[in-house]
Amino acid sequence: MNRKQSPSEDPDLEALRRCRQGERRAFAEIVDRHKNGVFRLVFRWLGHKERAEELAQEVFLKAYRELERFRGDAKFSTWLYQ
Q1: Which residues of 6-29 are buried (b: 16+ CB within 10 A; e: fewer)?
Q2: Is 81 helix (H, G, I), strand (E, B) or coil?
Q3: Are the C-beta atoms of residues 16 and 76 closer than 8 Å to each other?
Q4: Per residue in 23-47, pLDDT tens?
Q5: What pTM does this model have?
Q6: Which of 26, 30, 47, 65 is most buried (most C-beta within 10 Å)?
Q7: Taking the domains of the chain in order of start, what are their residue ranges?
Q8: Is 56 helix (H, G, I), strand (E, B) or coil?
């Protein structure tokens, strides 16, 4: 059974709501929550620390630019990692 989570159930959704209202710190919270996982995934692919750090940063830049495309059909982390 798929159902959308409420912001009270998922801290990313609350941060996204605030981010869409222009609160810059809200996206920093999302980055803080996911940066280690994104880095580990990219590092496993590349095997090069500096390049993995650069690519992880690019992931978050792209996510920020495309926040309006996130519809909430899945968890934010699922959307981020695709």
Answers
A1: eeeebebbebbebbeeeeeebbeb
A2: helix
A3: yes
A4: 989 999 999 999 999 999 999 999 9
A5: 0.82
A6: 30
A7: 11-81
A8: helix
Q: Which two tokens stand for residue 76?
A: 């934010």
CA nearest 70: which of 3, 28, 16, 14? 16
Which among 28, 13, 31, 11 is positioned nearest to 73, based on CA atoms? 13
Per-residue pLDDT tens over the stretch 8-18: 578 999 999 99
Which pair of tokens denotes residue 42? 């990219």
Q: Which CATH architecture has domain 11-81?
A: Orthogonal Bundle (1.10)
Q: Name, in order, each residue with C-beta under 8 angstroms of 19's C-beta and a sequence gap of 6 or more.
A: 26, 27, 30, 67
